[in-house]
Design goal:
The two termini are 42 Å apart. With 744 residues, the protein is an alpha/beta fold. It has 25 helices and 30 strands. Residues 1-34 and 291-304 have low confidence and may be disordered. Strand 5 (102-103) and strand 6 form a beta hairpin.
Amino acid sequence: MLGSTHGTLTTDSRRARVIACGEQPGPAVHGRPAAADDLDVSGRPLYADVPDLDRFFRPESVAVVGASDTEGRPNTGVTRQLVGWAERVGARLHPVHPTRETVFGLPCFPSVAELPEQVDLAVLLVADPLPVIEQLAETKVKFAVVFASGFAETGEAGAAAQERLAAAVARTGRSGVRLLGPNTNLNAFEHFRDDLPGPAIALITQSGHQGRPVFALQELGIRLSHWAPTGNEADLETADFLSYFAERPEVGAIACYVEGLKDGRSFLLAADRAARRGVPVVAVKVGRTETGARTAASHTGKLTGADEVVDAAMRQYGVIRVDGLDELQDTAALLARARPPQADGVVVYSISGGTGAHAADLATAAGLRLPPLSPAKQAELHQWIPEYLNVANPVDNGGHPVGDWRGRKIIDAILDDPAVGVLICPITGPFPPLSDRLVQDLVDAAEQTDKLVCVIWGSPVGTEPAYRDVLLGSSRVATFRTLANCVTAVRAHLDHHRFVSDYHSPFDQAPRTPSPSFRKAQLLIRPGQQLSEHAAKQLLRAYGIRVPREQLVTSAAAAVRAAGLVGYPVVMKASGARIAHKTELGLVKIGLTSASQVRDAYRELTDIARYEGVDLDGVLVCQMVERGVEMVVGVTHDDLFGPTVTVGLGGVLVEVLHDAAVRVPPFGEDQARDMLAELRGRPLLDGVRGRPPADLDALVEVVLRVQRMALELGDDLAELDINPLVVLPWGQGAVALDALAVCR
């Protein structure tokens, strides 16, 4: 039902399905039970479970429960569409209704138990699908679609009803019925054209209406193979269809409209499968703003997740995130049909200097590389273009050459340059016969090259023959209506192929067995408590993260002895499980250089703690570390993805600049270095104003060790904050000066 609301429960239906069968909850991988190597150190899957959905999209037999042919009833229109769809896919359709003998001339059966054969797919047009699901399990139906609404999208009572529905599906077992919905629609049973050539787009949407622009691409000659309207995702979810489509040979790209995710891990495993196969995934993910996130959450009943985490997770696995439905259709269409780039150089070619300059600005701002053409290439172009016009890039031909034989020569010469991988030609409006000749030359040239030729047809009319017949009639030219969408799509195209050419699955790098550090760390975990700084640093030591020389003391005399052992100057800090911001309370003393200063500092720290009502386990006497770049490295838990690792500028800057990068474990060294490259303050690590460069290798090592901690401790570690982590000059390492750890 278009425009209806959707709600998805966060219960992992696959896990419920296995538990209901009395099996261990390890997931299936490629249709087989999971082996030990298929699970990470915390027992989570490392590979996507790929459901066999062939019989869903191409069933041999279909039952329509609640079928009707009475005009004016909602079920009649649905039944009529399903009858037509079944004829197109070659399926036998069996109407089911307790009081009818025939529906649209087909024999009707009173219940699913009396169907003449085992069916692959049952479409339920009933208000209460639960009793029917239980009957379907007995008849070995493979798939069921529930259109009914009134489930998790409506509140607690509906969510409880959806839980019962999901539990009924789970009880059917691993080989039982799989459910699409509830609260889904007819999008899976649309009329997909079979006369269009080339790779296809497969579409996944959680709101059926939002997929219409992509579906309409068929009218522009772009093939669509499947549409999965996932609805409330009580069982089958976005990740299932993503994994399935990634394996389909006819699918050139997958387009998604996502309001919320049922399970972040499942989504990443599916995205990983697509990345391994080199299949581009383009997604609109709602929730960039607080208003959007709140609205999406109420619309879907699913978690939208912290947007910066969603963004980072999608980048990790090569999912291309766009904002608008127009960007979704244009980017998916280009990625589905374009051949791999031979070079990343982009040339803008136009008949106007102003048009070329504008296009070059937008392309450069989008991150595209516009290399100047070589002097030899410019000299070649000036054979056909007047000398006073710029041909370095962008190339301005002045207009007249496109009207004769010179136009094709210019295009071929540009495409012949080995540094050029993409030609972008903006045509701001029709000006026949010149624009007609230009369009034909571009199409003819595109047929003779493996390089990408993009045309922006700027006319708002869109009925011109040059556009409707010539450009849209070409499978080799990528045609856009706006320059912004063109450069967005081209950037995505180049980024995707760069990404997959060097893709190493993070899941292949995930630890399978606990490290010796894990056993040490387990002894330090205090469930439900915040650790003192001293205890938190012991946790860091267990994972090989360097901390300053320090001692925990409980008297002024012991503090003096400790200072002598640590070495002056020293820092003294109050240590207790409930102290979060010591500096603000005056519980830190730095630069102490004598025994008398240490004694006075001890008394002052304990007096302040007593006055503030802070319980201490002692006072830390620490080595003072002065030189280096202050960073922060931490672990938090995201509602969708679980543990996340953050690195950013530390000290007081962490709350002022908010300059941080985040990743979802597991990830490798390359991703850790990419995190540093994303920081606006990255130049500080390279050394500024005469300071030496910081030890980047040591910082990366800390990030990876913190990731290992997050993976192994899992839910036991609710939060970790190393701030500051002082990164010393190159070759000298990094030292965690302070740490906060919260246990679940």
